[in-house]
Amino acid sequence: MKRKKAVALKYDKGYKAPIVTALGAGKIAESIINLASENKIPIVENKDLTESLSMLNLGDTIPQELYETVAEIIAYIHRISSKIEDF
């Protein structure tokens, strides 16, 4: 059985690209997911993206080949966040 992996990203205006703020496997991944959930941070499951991002180090910006995928996720999060705020 493969160990669960998790990667947290942060993006603010002015950033060149999103940066890795947390990553881990197994119990660390579970802690990242639980912390995000407790703080109402949206969680998106994407195994392929997680595999690619898990090769990076803390503080790294995402590589250009992942921009489109991550941009789609950020747009999705903005859409669901605005719907929640309007509710």
Automatic annotation (TrEMBL):
Keywords: Cell projection, Cilium, Flagellum. InterPro entries: T3SS_substrate_exporter, T3SS_substrate_exporter_C. The keyword Transmembrane helix does not apply. One of its GO terms (biological process) is protein secretion. GO terms for cellular component: plasma membrane. Pfam families: Bac_export_2. This is Flagellar biosynthesis. It comes from Fervidicella metallireducens AeB. The lineage of its organism: Bacteria, Bacillati, Bacillota, Clostridia, Eubacteriales.
